[in-house]
């Protein structure tokens, strides 16, 4: 991957993705070999929006590469609450760190940040836009179970605002995947995502029910339908109930169906699914560590190809 | 020059933007940043009959020759427009508008949650795609209602 930043999944080629995933596999196989690889470097965790797992996962990944991390603390107590622009904030933080991870409530925030600074920027979620590092760990999870070709995947839930969905759908177009999108009418894929999928000639179908396609799927990727997307709470409960799965739902699925979820889940996957062979969402979350280590390693290497990379590792 | 164009007087030097879709003349001026404060004469004909378009608008700007890149942005709202450069009452150059690859600082993003609408010091930038324009920041696609988002 010869990229300066990771802003959107649409920027990634198949080779880019496979290179990071190969490296993630190497990291998982021998984490000790990477332990001091970026010693002395600093990763800034710029989270303008609450996040638990993405922030902790990047924090942990960086530390396992020997890096230190710095954060902004609570947005309410930072300069952001004093009205400083994102442009200024990232320019200042650029001087404190060797790379930035950015989570921001506005779509396009990471693109803007990437234009303002010279150090690598990773988009860790921009509003309802993109979340490409999540996609890399999703793809790693899928690849370990099924491989990435000849894949039939169902993506279900909030497809309109779900940034993990937008990134995953875009990245899957680099592979030979049949994508089924299952959602209520009001939460279908946004026009911009559908446009990109059509541009690539991707095989996609949209459904309002899971049942007709469940038996064909290798992977079912479930996302949360959020209450705040509905003006009426009764409507929310009615719709959300239709896109909830449990162990009984999965009796109609293939034996080797993999069920994934970017987490946090609320009640769209019943706890009894956790005990089935289908559940992979906790491994998926754990895969954030080797994948984000591989991603940071790649971006830092691109940013400073002649730099001292610490211990040379076999790749 | 046809009788229809005589509704507004001939100009000695400048640019005539003809065959603008009816009702878009003021948006054309907005895109070009012409609000009269520059001191040069501006004439506008709106909804005049046209063989080609049914109704068309015409904009005449005196003592100013518009560059190709300036007028290419017009193609987004006036794809049929023709640009006539006039010197000493004669049309010395006649060009069609061509679609640019992108437009910078002309349109506002319709997505209220786009970072370009968050008070940042940033110019909007749109790629021109098959059937509209697309925000470089949030990827929102703008199609039929481009003229509503002119922000210059």
Verbal overview:
The complex is a heterodimer of chains A (315) and B (152). Chain A is α/β, with parallel strands linked by helices and 315 residues long. Chain A contains 11 helices and 9 strands. Chain A has helices at 14-29, 53-64, 86-94, 109-116, 132-146, 163-172, 191-199, 211-214, 233-242, 281-286, 288-303, and strands at 42-47, 68-71, 99-104, 121-126, 151-156, 177-182, 203-207, 219-222, 258-260. The model of chain B has no long low-confidence stretch (mean pLDDT 88). In chain B, the strands form 2 sheets. In chain B, strands 2-3-1-4-5 form a 5-stranded antiparallel β-sheet, with helices on one face. A 4-stranded antiparallel β-sheet of chain B has the order 6-7-8-9, with no helix packed on it. Chain B has 2 domains: 14-96, 2-Layer Sandwich (Alpha-Beta Plaits), CATH 3.30.70; 102-149, Aspartate carbamoyltransferase regulatory subunit, C-terminal domain (SH3 type barrels), CATH 2.30.30.20. Chain B is mainly β and 152 residues long. The interface between A and B is medium-sized, with 20 and 20 residues.
Key structural traits:
heterodimer, A: 315 residues, alpha/beta, Rossmann fold, 2 domains, 5-stranded parallel sheet, 4-stranded parallel sheet, 11 helices, 9 strands, globular, disordered C terminus, B: 152 residues, mainly beta, Alpha-Beta Plaits, SH3 type barrels, 5-stranded antiparallel sheet, 4-stranded antiparallel sheet, 2 helices, 9% helix
Low-confidence stretches of chain A: 309-315
Briefly, what CATH class of the largest domain in chain A?
Answer: Alpha Beta
Helix content of chain B: under 10%
Q: Helix coverage percent of residues of chain A?
A: 25-40%
H/E order of the elements of chain B? EHEEHEEEEEE
By secondary-structure content and strand pairing, the structural class of chain B works out as mainly beta
Number of strands of chain A: 9
| Biggest interface | A-B, 20 and 20 residues
Which percent range describes the beta-strand content of chain A? 5-15%
Give the radius of gyration of chain A: 19 Å
Order of helices and strands of chain A: HEHEHEHEHEHEHEHEHEHH
Cofactor (chain B): Zn(2+)
Binding site for Zn(2+) (chain B): 109, 114, 135, 138
Subunit structure (chain B): Contains catalytic and regulatory chains.
Keywords (chain B): Metal-binding, Pyrimidine biosynthesis, Transferase, Zinc
